[in-house]
Amino acid sequence: MGESLEKIRNQLNEFFQSLNKKQKILIGLGSLFLVSFLSLAIFYFAKPDYKVIYSGLNLEEAGQITAKLDEMNIPWKDANGGTTILVPKESVNKARMNLAVEGFPNKEFTWSDAFNSNSLTMTSEERRMKYLKAQMSELAQTIETLEGVVDAKVNLSVPDNSDFLTEKYKFSKASVVVTLKRGYKLTEQQVNGIVMIVANAVEGLKPENVSVHDSTGRILNSKPEDSEVYTVNNSMDIQQQVRTNLQNSIKNLLAKIYGFKNVDVMVNVKLNFDKEVTQYVEFNPPLEGETNGLIRSISKLKEQVADTAEGGPPGTDSNSQEITEYKEFESKGSKYEKENTNINYELNEIRKNIVKAPGQIEDISVAVIINRKSLPNGELTEEHKQQLIKLVSAAAGLETKVVEVMASDFNDSDNQNSIVSSEDNGNILSKLPMWSIGIISLLLIIGVVFTVIRIRKRKNEVQEILEPPVTGESDEIEEIDLDFNDKASYKYQIEKFLDKKPEAVAQLLRNWLNED
After folding, report:
1. Nearest to residue 405, comparing CAs of 393, 420, 421?
2. Rg of the chain, C-alpha, whole Å
3. Is the peptide bond before 105 cis (omega within 30 degrees of 0)?
4. Among 168, 172, 270, 302, who pairs with 363 as Cys (CB 3.0-4.6 Å)?
5. Domain boundary among 70, 102, 134
């Protein structure tokens, strides 16, 4: 092992001695940069991760807690003007347990405090407020255990519905304020999880009455799923997504004909986010093929009236001697008949509510630019243009009101490609962690050093082969015997000698060069 290390050290010394001044300066600067980079990376990744143990303290209590932490040799940091105390993540439990033994923090309120502080003189309202305070503290501690949450505050508004005089029921409300790690962002599922944690822990609290805020006051929880309100940001996001999908579909279709770099597409979409509800009632007979339904009830009304009169002398006047005679007429009778039938049929009644979903495409226009160089003869004919308009309309899958197609020269395609490639490379490098870049740099430097050492070693071995012992040079040169005769040419003899004595020929050439 020692001989190997000594050999490596000698090789390194020989390598550095063979370098010129400029190469030594470059290697020194590279080594200095690498050492500095690795030191910063180690310092950044090796520094402890601090976590909040207490927040919302007054300065007096914060000073007492930090003094106790100094006695326990636990490093700490303060934040928010000294009202928040942070300790290394691995020391959180130890610090909390030791401080709890000392009675810190004084204002921490737990379930034990809520039940142990009961007295005979305590009113029901005071008991309810203590219970509520303990509940807020427990919920805050539960939320602080979630990933990415440094601190949490929970405020509950729970009305007292036990009063029988109050007829209207009041629902509970809650607000949660979370402080997140730097650069951390809660997902929608995590925010909804916080909402459900609070809603399920408080009686009469609905999820829609819980709001979650970050340290800047911004609302994090999304709208309920059944909400019909579309904010400006939501509508713009949906519209942008529809526009992007249409642009990609049209461009991918045209790219197969003209090439991806020879086509550019711009789509403008107008969406209608108004909710439309249509209600209608339909009556159908229960039996297929029948025009009438089943008879539910029948009522009939029939009337008949007959009127007849008898003719004859009406009699005589008792006060007169003369007999009054009346002309007799033949009497005819009158007759009246009426019949009414009312039938009630049983029909199928169908009620439908048709809700038109918001976000329907109301208007769409497409603009297509094609590189003139990709067109036949470099011109876009009217027939070709009309074919493209039909193709774009079919690709969009909608009736497009406006489709504009034009041909132009693309001058910045190469520049855009180079910019995109450089941005992609930059994004790839930015995604790599710092320590991996340092390790890659170190491996590259080590590889370069060993490659140079190996090349120099091979060069020395070649020189040793080409340089035979000095004592035998004269003997080998003297032993050269060229047999020139009429049957052998000079060229044949020289080639034969080169095959048999390559070392001697090399030494002979070296001597000639040294003499010159």
Report:
1. 393
2. 51
3. yes
4. 270
5. 102
